[in-house]
What we know:
The complex is a heterodimer of chains A (103) and B (266).
Chain A: E1 5-12, E2 15-22, E3 44-51, E4 54-60, E5 70-76, E6 83-90, E7 95-101
Antiparallel strand pairs in A: 1-2, 2-5, 3-4, 3-6, 6-7
Chain B: H1 2-17, H2 21-36, H3 41-53, E1 84-86, E2 91-93, H4 95-105, H5 111-114, H6 127-137, H7 151-165, H8 175-179, E3 185-186, E4 189-190, H9 197-204, E5 209-211, E6 216-218, H10 220-230, H11 241-253, E7 263-265
Parallel strand pairs in B: 5-7
Antiparallel strand pairs in B: 1-2, 3-4, 5-6
Amino acid sequence: MAGPMKARARMQGNYADVRVLMSHPMETGQRKGRDGKPIPKHFIQNLAVKLNGKTVIEGECSQAVSRNPVFSFRIGGAKPGDKIEISWLDNKGETNKTETAVA
Amino acid sequence: MRASGKRTLLLAAFAFAAAPAAAQTSQFEQYQKMVGEDSPAELFVLVGADLWRKKQGPKNASLERCDLGKGPGVVKGAYAALPRYFADANQVMDAESRILYCMETLQGRSRKEALKRPFGNADKPSEMEYLDAFVASQSDGFKMTPGMSHPQEKRAYELGKALFFARTGLYDFSCASCHGEPGKRIRMSDLPVLSEPGPARAAMSTWPAYRVSNSQMKTMQWRVNNCYRQMRTPQPVWGSEVVNSMIMYLTVNAKGAVYAGPGTKR
């Protein structure tokens, strides 16, 4: 039930500037709901970026990141037309991914 | 050395207190610019586009044949030409009112059902917020040309203008109390002078907008509604003549602006 993702990648000099938008509640576990009970943690834990199928970035992410986060990466050695796949995995095991081509 | 250090500190403190408002404005503008790049507003547009094509309601129809003023099925550039008078409904409508009209006519839904939850929250945005974001996104780059020729359009403008300057409610506030002179702000947010073309253009060309501070897509109906809430008046009725006329007045003030929404706000 993950919401949409959107990514774009543009060449800037000799690297690709990749930007990605993700829908995610990013609950910290610190907030309380209307019933006074804490809202369970729910946040993206891992990010992975693949360039033409090969993993080039693996990152960890914490509750400190906002809801519906925006990330940007620079990938050296990318060329126009290269396929970039970005995926995330959250603490509940939910996952989502999106693809874009370097422009 | 210690004393002189203290003096420097004191001077620095003074300099800070006396820092011109312009410096703060530029900070706020910088922030606006930063959050505006690759905004989550785009995620709402994607969901809105799906909802636009989703068949639902008693007639099991989508909104794809909705006439937003440019003919049935034309979404491109429609938002930038609203509000305007619609003969079929015999009233001046903004984008959201028109979307609601299409939900009623095309999908056969009752106004009550379709308006059950016009304003969503961060956990569950409303259908209207998604749809409004999508419709608005299709006018990116279009010049804003609200209807200004029909007598009802002129009437809406005049009513909106009168409302803008009318003081009312518990605080005896008018819209102009906050939005009537330059250099005002609430906390860190600059308050645009919405009766002037320049600030009105900047504001109206970027609504609806994703609000970073509460992770929500906010629409123009909400914006007017919430201003009245802050003025402690009774809550205006969604899509009423009051709200639509206010939106008409503000949009006419902004006419000629190049629409660049949905935007991103603090």
